[in-house]
Amino acid sequence: MRTSYYQLRSSIRVLVAASLAAIPLGLVTFPATAQDAAAPSSAPQTSAPQTSAPRPSQGYKPYFVEFRARAAASYGHMYVLYGQLNGHGEIVKSDIAGFHPKGDANDCENCSLVPWTVGHVLFVPSEIGASDGDLEEKYVTGRYRVMVDGATFKKVSAHVKRLKAEKPLWNALLNNCVTFGNDIAVLIGLKTPSGVNLMKPEQYIESLREMNGGKPQKALRFAAPASSAPPASAPPPAASKPKKDSAANLSARTAGVSDSPR
Q1: Which of 12, 37, 124, 165 is the most buried (most CB within 10 A)?
Q2: Residues forming beta bridges with residue 90, ordered by sequence position
Q3: What are the backbone dihedrals phi and psi of residue 248, each rounded to the nearest 5 degrees, phi first?
Q4: How far is the C-alpha of 132 from the C-alpha of 34, rounded, in Å?
């Protein structure tokens, strides 16, 4: 009986010792198993091929439509500048579409305020293009520019060309420069305010920006002509003598005469 008791105790000791010895072995085995399981994820992943080519920096010419308001001797004027940009964001081609009474074009020889004055009561003949002051950045008081695709740009160009051929009549209260610009904004899918025929140009530009989103924008730069740089082998041009201001110009500057467009 005593012998069986000692044998039982010996067996228990052996089992306990074996169990204690197996625990460290099990702990050592678990990290190895975890590493084996994680091994497939550490293999290099093959990325999917790029289906679209990145936008090139050279030769990329997005189109733009810019709605502008400028100062004038009256309540201002609104017109649209539209064209193409190069890869550096510079204008390479542009045109101006503004709706104004006949006789106020930028290159008019016999400019007159009579059509503009009469147009506040009656409908008068009009012109579409650049008016006096549209080509000078210093008169711009507001702008809102959007980028468009080629199809939209062609649509705007066709719209302006058609109106030039139709020659609609101008009226300061019903069919003016703001309604003309608003029609182009609607054409390219912008949200537009109501009652635009009675809005001032600068007010309309601000409303257009607020309704369609966007922050105040800086003026675009015009790209330098490709032929502006002389050939390397050509001699530099002789320096020309600076022109002196005429007495009329000097007196006008001294007196502070305003040169604001109509």
Answers
A1: 124
A2: 221
A3: -65, -40
A4: 79
Residue 86: closest CA among 98, 94, 78, 96:
94
Q: By the 8 A CB rule, do 95 and 82 touch?
A: yes
* CB crowding 169-199: b at 16 or more within 10 Å, else e: ebbbeebbbbbbbbebbeebebebeeebeeb
Run of H or E including 25? helix 2-38
Report, as an integer, the average pLDDT of 141-156. 95
How many of the other CB atoms lie within 10 Å of CB of 142? 22
pLDDT for 74: 84
The 3-class SS string of 232-254 reads CCCCCCCCCCCCCCCHHHHHHHH
* 83 bridge partner residues: 64, 94
Residue 16: which pLDDT band, with cuts at 50, 70 and 90?
very low
Q: 3-class SS at 193? A: coil
User: Which residues lie below 8 Å from residue 176, measured CB to CB, with a gap of 6+?
Assistant: 99, 170, 197
If we measure between CA atoms, which residue out of 182, 180, 185 comes closest to residue 164? 180
pLDDT(134) > 70: yes
Q: What does pLDDT average to over the chain?
A: 75
How many other β-carbons are positioned within 10 Å of the β-carbon of residue 84? Answer: 16
Spatial distance between the Cα atoms of 137 and 154, rounded to a whole number of angstroms: 25
More confident residue, 19 or 74: 74
